[in-house]
């Protein structure tokens, strides 16, 4: 890019209040890196503490039963609809 177009781009960024200067944003984040790292570390510590202290609020049970003939027929029909003649054979 030549100097004129570079200056025009810089002026456009400065004159547009809705634009975000990503370089400036990264510089500000880098300047506050100690704060960012400290809060990240603190959040991780609090999450680990909560993980070990929190009571489990969920339960799950599963009952597995052998399907009857009607269920198998319905399953085979569904496979035929989806795959046509290429349906897996369950013999």
Walkthrough of the structure:
The chain starts with a helix and ends in an 8-residue tail after the last helix. The chain is elongated. The protein has four helices and no strands. The longest helix is centred in the middle third of the chain and has 21 residues, at 33-53. With 91 residues, the protein is mostly helical.
Q: Note the beta-strand portion.
A: under 5%
Number of helices: 4
Derived from helix and strand composition plus strand pairing, the structural class reads mainly alpha
Mean pLDDT across every amino acid position: 83
How far apart the termini lie comes to: 70 Å
Q: Radius of gyration over alpha carbons?
A: 31 Å
Principal-axis shape: elongated
**Helical percentage:** 55-70%
Question: Total number of β-strand segments?
Answer: 0
**Major beta sheet summary:** none
Unreliable spans: none
Order of helices and strands: HHHH
In short:
The protein has helices at residues 3-15, 22-31, 33-53, 69-83. With 91 residues, it is an all-alpha fold. The longest helix has 21 residues, at 33-53.
Question: What layout of secondary structure does this protein have?
Answer:
Blueprint: H1 3-15, H2 22-31, H3 33-53, H4 69-83
